[in-house]
Write a structure and sequence with these properties.
Blueprint: E1 7-9, E2 13-15, H1 21-28, H2 33-36, H3 45-48, H4 57-62, H5 70-96, E3 102-104, E4 108-115, E5 120-127, E6 134-142, E7 153-163, E8 165-176, H6 177-183, E9 190-200, E10 204-215, E11 224-232, E12 239-247, E13 258-267, E14 271-279, E15 289-296, E16 301-308, E17 316-317, E18 323-324
């Protein structure tokens, strides 16, 4: 059976009242960008890659010249890489959802196929018979001009158990850039991105991501294997993230990139702070650096220090790294001693102040139906 509907797509999917109820419920159980993207500064979503319109990642990376809050910029680059990859799946999903659905047996709706610039995509949604308000979905693609159904590869998959509002609840999402490369050879990304998310009301969210050999562009961006977490609080707009990123810390000996594990906090209208733990690059083997940076509401850096903790004599300032005073940080909660993240970036434990923990992150990119 086929029927028509109208779908307006912006940052979220907004559905028309003319849809068949079952189909509308299925579409409202799809993830959207606002509910899955990682945010640092809610007043600068385009810089985080959390706005719906994409920026070129290479241009953003080239702009990290150390003149701003470098610890913020380094973390933001990896946040943007993650968000741009989410967009690779969520934009085709939103476009496919504008089409009329083909209803298949066993409560499956299929949208497409639809040709895009690099491949032909189709979307399938399945109502979970075991759990009310839970839907599973998968996005598949095959090479352009192919008519062979066997050529489809799984690009993304996930599930969402609704909790009131459309596109809100608890769910998972996983993306294979390797499979996208297989059907669209011009694509430069590699690896996998898996995540779980939980929403609390329309605006608060808690997110956890696992990255495996992940890069949005293997020519310009080192692959990352690790875990990211983050949350946003609706009432205050306060955000907190923990990410692992390869970039060159200021005041190190050369331009070689270190591995930097960062926790970043931001208070809208006030400013923010990053605490980092770094290794590799110019840092001696078995050594590590710790650092702090804080900035104001315009992201102007007010304080920074980087300390070398690898010499066996305690932690000592890296020459030239101390800028300003911690008392210049714009809020009491942004001042204080070093509070570096622990480990090497594999922990999925939520950051303090989160509204609640999301579920288990998928171990691979697989569909449930």
């Amino acid at each position: 059976m086929r029927w028509s509907k109208t779908l307006a797509v912006a940052a979220t999917l907004v559905l028309s009242a003319g849809c068949r109820v079952d189909d509308q419920e299925a579409l409202e159980a799809l993830p959207d960008f606002a509910g899955t993207s990682l945010e640092i500064n809610t007043d600068a979503l385009a810089q985080d890659g959390a706005a719906l319109v994409a920026q070129d990642l290479g241009q953003v990376e080239a702009s990290l010249d150390g003149q701003g809050a470098a610890m913020l910029e380094g973390a933001r680059l990896e946040v943007k890489a993650l968000n741009d990859t989410l967009r690779l799946a969520l934009v085709p999903i939103a476009d496919l959802a504008k089409q009329a659905a083909n209803e298949q047996p066993h409560d499956v709706y299929v949208y497409g196929p639809q040709e895009r610039a690099n491949a032909t995509f189709k979307l399938s949604i399945h109502k979970d018979p075991r759990e009310a308000q839970r839907y599973e979905w998968k996005l598949e693609a095959r090479p352009l001009n192919s008519t062979d159904d066997a050529a489809y590869k799984l690009i993304a998959a996930g599930a969402l158990k609704r909790d009131g509002e459309a596109h809100r609840g608890r769910g998972t999402l996983a993306i294979s850039l390797d499979n996208l490369k297989a059907v669209a050879p011009s694509h430069r990304g590699r690896g996998k991105l898996m995540m779980s998310f939980a929403h609390f009301g329309q605006g608060s969210k808690s997110l956890a991501y696992r990255l495996e050999s992940f890069t949005p562009n293997r020519d310009t961006h080192e692959a990352v294997t690790g875990s990211f977490v983050g949350h946003r609080l609706q009432a205050t707009g306060v955000t907190r993230v923990r990410v692992l990123a390869p970039y060159n810390l200021p005041n190190t000996a050369t331009s070689e990139k270190e591995w930097v594990l960062s926790t970043v906090r931001h208070i809208p209208g006030t400013g923010g702070r990053a605490d980092v733990r770094a290794w590799g690059g110019n840092i001696p083997e078995n050594g590590y650096y710790l650092g702090i940076s804080c900035w104001d509401a315009q992201e102007k850096e007010l304080y920074r220090v980087l300390v070398d903790c690898g010499g066996g004599l305690g932690c000592m300032d890296v020459p030239g790294s101390r800028v300003g005073s911690s008392q210049a940080c714009p809020a009491v909660e942004l001042r204080g001693d070093l509070m570096p993240p622990e480990g090497t970036g594999n922990d999925l434990t939520p950051e303090p102040g989160n509204p609640g923990a999301p579920g288990i992150v998928p171990g691979d990119v697989t569909a449930e139906f």
